[in-house]
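Issue: ligand-bound run for beta-D-glucopyranose - logging full I/O for the record.

Environment: standard queue, default settings, no custom constraints.

Inputs:
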Amino acid sequence: MAKRPGWLENAVFYEIYPQSFLDTNGDGVGDLNGITARLPYIRELGCTAVWINPCFASPFGDAGYDVSDYCRVAPRYGTNEDLVRLFSEAHRLGLHVLLDLVPGHTSWEHAWFRESMKAERNEFTDRYVWTDSIWEEPCGFGSLRGISERDGSCAVNFFTHQPALNYGFYRPERPWQQPMDSEGALATREALKDVMRFWLSRGCDGFRVDMAGSLVKNDEDGKGNIALWQDVRAFLDREFPHAAMISEWGEPQLSLAGGFHMDFLLHFGSSHYNDLFRCEAPFFEGNGDASAFVAKYADSCRRSEGRGLICIPSGNHDMDRLARHIHGDNRKLSFAFLLSMPGAPYIYYGDEIGMNYVEGLASVEGGYNRTGSRSPMQWDDSANAGFSDAPADELYIPIDPDTDRPTVQAQLGDASSLRSEVKRLIAVRQAHKALQSLGGIDFVCDGAKGKPLAYIRSSEGERIFVAVNPTDKTSELTVDGRFGDIVYRFGEDIALSGSRCTLGARSAVFAELL
Ligand code: BGC
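Outputs:
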């Protein structure tokens, strides 16, 4: 198992989409100095770490997930020095910072790719996955062809302008498919380590790794990708043993074997995450069913060191805002769940105040339907909700036009606001090791239709019972053990006696178990 930075144990992350957080130079786009200025806000909420979406040089065809220079901050966000200042200011406040590492592909504008398109062999010829004839298509997401002097098609990983870097094939089947230990594939891997070295030596605390399971091709059971990441972890253990690594993989049993500390629960694939927050009848809206989620989650825990090192996000830049589907107090109940589960929770900027999905926007920088979840942070009631001094029509994405839109300013001073509830919940988590990342979890009730979700979290002799009931019916639960003190409650009609718990409609309770 990888060495684990101690701070991950009680980490609560705040995800920042830099374009939309705070614009300090009036160009309509958020910037690094804006993030630095608002670190105290994040600290005050109780978060201990931030993840910043890609902030590197890019033509922004995929909002920065199309990097053209991994070692240079995009000028619209500031300079490398601004980022280093952000790291030190975060550390001064006791926060840690993860950058977003996009190892699978670059922009087609990256200098490596331009060199790799040349007909004459050079250092970058094998940096990407190329077929050896323009008439042959690589498999996967499609290809980039007809724009190079070189005779060949280049595999892409996501959008057409994101050529796939070459880390080799686990089982090469065609002559142009290089093995993982070929010179070209190993050179790409070393280049990736150089990028990590560059930012870790300047104060970054680790990485959220984009599409981490997609690097080695023809690797159905993940063995090649696990081996690659184990090698990266060995490099980190030698040079940066405290670097934290969180994967976007969605397969914790594979990702942890590769040396990642935690893996994200994805909103696509087999996780059933959407059953909770984003489907026709989401569990947290009160009339859904969480049992398929629980079955899959419990199975993933069993298969990954017996621990739920699975990070469950409130949302992110790729999915609908939680508030689009979950309303009223059920949003608070959603956070009662998110902030009492194992693995580090991630709060997407603005979710703590219930920012909504902005409907009907034209796509911005490859956002498509994701654009509505990427609108500017709503700080206060001043122009542009306090996000920027630029004219409204020059903002990166328009502000939510709803006149009742939530703001930080309005919620800060209101003890009954969503933000105040989120802050309380983080404080409760911080006060109990059993509720934090590494504590165990045993389900008591699986949230099947009409039932609450209930589980016992445990660590070093401490056991905390958590029950969340978003339905409109009172529920009765019995546990093994005797209830002690209640450490958190929300809603009416909550009674604990002996080993019996009565949980009213739309309520939640966390209680010690003796
Ligand atoms: C990121 C997306 C991005 C894609 C390609 C995803 O997992 O979160 O925003 O478009 O990777 O890099």
